[in-house]
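Appendix B. Extra example for self-study. Work through it before the problem class; the solution is given directly after the inputs so you can check yourself.
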Amino acid sequence: MAAPKALICAMIILLGVVGFTCPRASAGRVPSVAPVPVRGASTGESNIVSAGTGLNRCGKSCRLRWLNYLRPGIKRGNISNDEEELIVRLHGLLGNRWSLIAGRLPGRTDNEIKNYWNTTLSKRMLQSHGAGCSDHPQAKPPLPPQAGGEAQAPPEGTSSSPIRTKALRCTNTVLAVAEGFHEQGRAAPEHVAEEDQLGDCLSIGSIDLDLEGIELGFMMSPWSGADGLGGQHFGAPGTEADDLEELLGLGGDGDGHGGLGDLELAWL
DNA sequence: AATCCACGCAACCGCCGAATT
DNA sequence: AAATTCGGCGGTTGCGTGGAT
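Solution. Structure tokens for the complete assembly:
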């Protein structure tokens, strides 16, 4: 893989220049130069990175830092209503596939969305469901913090199963909810958040996603798996990925590009 | 003014699949 | 074909902040 190596090189350079300065300098674990266990990683790369930066950080740690914080174009905070709406809907559809959800929210990281969900939306959903009303009938009930997430299979024959996905890159998305939305940039019109607009239909590019239909289709699909984890992963050939892309009329080109992963983004 | 507590968020951990040797 | 390495993901942890008492 050329890109990740280039990324590591870029990180080394960047880290050497800016270090792990924290603009916010507050919450979370403040980047430090304290020794960090180099678990999982990759001896070689971690040594290279730590030697190159003097930070005693493994490549994984640096990568994470880069992806979630240092990478250009990261949007932080101020999640808009339409973004929030999209998160809710996608979570209902995809489950805790944060990277996949993040792929549909330009500038947002999976970590941020995950945090946002766990801290804000889950509570809101809990209140919503607790009040006996649900704006999003398809959405999964909020996951308790320790719920174990995907390991919990929904009750048989009752609620729907989220699409099980794995490592399906989706970096660009068109959310063509309304005419002129593209040109208007992120300032999504208020009607985006309206249920009758979002409803059970989302437009991605020229493709109208019938979320209800998609989910129904996956509910009925046989690959739910007997392992309680949803079985096969989305990215595997001949499994959900193909099914969904076929369902959506997308169809990748077989080399990992095209299809869901390369939906054009005109949002930003 | 001091203390407590809940919250937000960056970072860490463990696992898995893909790629490479 | 098997073993090893690497990249990526989701879940969890723990620190700092700000509000409440």
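Self-check: Strands of chain A lie at 201-204, 207-210. If your reasoning did not lead you there, revisit section 3.
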